[in-house]
Amino acid sequence: MSDYAWRLLVIAGAGYLILMIVGRFHLVTLSFFLALVITSVLRPLVDLFARRMPRSLAVLLALVGAVVLIAALLALVGETVAVETTTLSEEFQSGVDRLKHFLTGPPFHVDRSVFDDLGKKVTTYLAEHRSTLISSAVSGASRAVEVATGAALALFTTVFLLHSGDRMWLWTRGQLPPGARDPYHRAGRTAWRTFAGYTRGIVIVAGTNAVLVGIALFLLGVPLALPLTLLEFFASFIPLVGSPIAMAVASLVAFASQGPVIALVVLALIVVIGQIEGHLLHPLVMSWAVNLHPVVVAASVLCGSIAAGVIGAVVAVPAVSVVWAVTTELRHGDGAAGAGGGRRTDGPGEGAPLGG
Q1: How far is CA 103 from its chain centroid?
Q2: Does 324 fall in a domain?
Q3: What's the mean pLDDT in 112-117?
Q4: What pTM, to 2 d.p., does this model score?
């Protein structure tokens, strides 16, 4: 028992030290994580292009195409928001008036003074904390510069990972002692396959959720359907809680524009889409990549959000999946299902992690 105790203490100490280092250099860590995500998504496309053109040109074409697609979507969202903001503001005020009328009537009979007091409290709060809000906006501007720097670093790293990631990996492997090269290579191959499988799987799940939400919002006549669809897509990268939060925002917009009935319908979509995601999409799409119990997923998201906020919630599940897959691979050797239940087949270019 004492042997297990000191080993657990060593592992806990090492984990704490890693968290401190990661927190200290969080910008570099997040940039590299983003580069891995982009690489895992674009690598199949780059491999496809590389069959008919030089790999350098294939990498350039894939990255430029991705940037143009994202820029076009953001421009379309900006235009949509600019066109509908004024109308939505007026509709929101009308929706608030309808809610007041509904709550002050039967069967609730809420006193109108409650709404007046609430409005006064909000106004007072904004007046008293104006300086804090301004300083937050200024710090947000400096944060934007930091985000731009991290994005540039991520893009720079992605170019090299897509172009020559396999050679980078084999060079690193060659620096190790001969006895450690095979376990290191198997662990790295398993980690990359699990991470790439999870990333591609979550993109498929998020895209499916976004399509379902977009169709529903369009049919219900909710304004800002396209921005809310993109919000649903990105929110789905946070397991369990991201999609309901995005749908709650959509229900608020629906309430402002269409009234409480449509807002309740949108809230009902949270339950329906949650059931589709939890019982169909995740088991179907993710089973070949990772195999984590829902309790482990929930605990990972909670611990990640406590440690590093939204970023931690996004990173937690793939990190736990990779650790579990590598542990399984090294414990059982070549006979293990390396990705925690995933496939073991290595196609072209899969022999080395990060490869091209």
Answers
A1: 38
A2: yes
A3: 72
A4: 0.75
